[in-house]
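About this split. The held-out portion is used to measure sequence recovery: a designer receives only the structure tokens and must propose an amino acid at every position. Recovery is the fraction of positions where the proposal matches the reference. Here is one held-out target exactly as it appears in the evaluation file.
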């Protein structure tokens, strides 16, 4: 039995490596994993010429919606935001009416039909369908999120506003954003085709208001099994900002990330505390 298990393991290892065999002298088709963040990249490359390839990428990410640092940031401007939010609540009693009706229906104190008649609810059918779809656990979480908001409706104090932000942040800590996007890059071979020091570097010119230049590249990693050598490709993502004094649409160019991130062909497992999943483009 031990002999069979060992041989089966050898066969699995052999075929996993022969998928990327010696003939694969350039990146063709693969999946790489970010060694620092919960990102992955799948790529599909085609030959354009002897020293040029074009690759289509799909980047997939899973990231925490909020962190402990975000709460500190959210509380920095609490004085201004508290006043603006307080004015909005005072001017509109529909929001508070809807929140109260929602909590009472979630607790079973009133029927969904009765709750749907609240002044703040415009689509009664949709409200009832949505509330019916919630699990008991989600109902409990929603009540915990809405209670501080209802407390603020009753007493719009700065303390209640702070409690409302903290409650919302608690849920965001347990929420992960998942998304993906596509992009295409062309690469030029640097070094001799058979050299172990060769690399495929992305072709890039400064673009956008920040003058971003892509410096990403594919680097080979050689694996030797018995008398055979196999090639795996790692992807290194990096960019340079040539106009740090510029302004992008959502942020200043000076804060753009110029760090280097390695995507390895070696499979990664990531530990995330995700109770909720939120699909996102960012």
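Reference sequence for scoring:
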């Amino acid at each position: 039995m031990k002999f069979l298990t060992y041989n089966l393991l050898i066969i699995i290892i052999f075929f996993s490596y022969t998928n990327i065999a010696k003939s694969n002298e350039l990146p063709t088709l693969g999946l790489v994993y970010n060694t620092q963040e919960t990102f992955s990249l799948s790529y599909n490359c085609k030959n354009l010429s002897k020293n040029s390839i074009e690759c289509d990428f799909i980047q997939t990410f899973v990231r925490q919606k909020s962190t402990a640092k975000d709460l500190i940031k959210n509380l920095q401007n609490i004085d201004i935001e508290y006043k603006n939010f307080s004015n909005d609540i005072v001017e509109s009693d529909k929001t508070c009416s809807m929140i109260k009706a929602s909590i009472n229906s979630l607790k079973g104190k009133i029927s969904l039909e009765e709750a749907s008649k609240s002044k703040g609810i415009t689509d009664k059918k949709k409200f009832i369908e949505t509330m019916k779809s919630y699990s008991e656990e989600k109902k409990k979480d929603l009540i915990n999120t809405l209670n501080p908001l209802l407390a603020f409706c009753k007493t719009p104090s700065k303390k209640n506003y702070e409690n409302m932000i903290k409650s919302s942040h608690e849920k965001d800590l347990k929420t992960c954003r998942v998304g993906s996007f596509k992009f295409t890059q062309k690469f030029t071979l640097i070094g001799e085709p058979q050299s172990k020091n060769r690399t495929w570097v992305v072709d890039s010119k400064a673009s956008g208001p920040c003058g971003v230049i892509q410096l990403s590249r594919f680097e080979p990693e050689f694996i030797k099994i018995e008398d055979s050598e196999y090639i795996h490709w790692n992807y290194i993502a990096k960019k340079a900002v040539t106009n740090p004094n510029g302004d992008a649409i959502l942020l200043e160019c000076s804060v753009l990330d110029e760090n280097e991130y390695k995507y390895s062909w070696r499979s990664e497992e990531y530990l995330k505390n995700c109770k909720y999943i939120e699909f996102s483009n960012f």
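Annotator remark: Helices lie at 2-18, 68-76, 78-91, 93-106, 112-115, 124-133, 136-154, 158-173.
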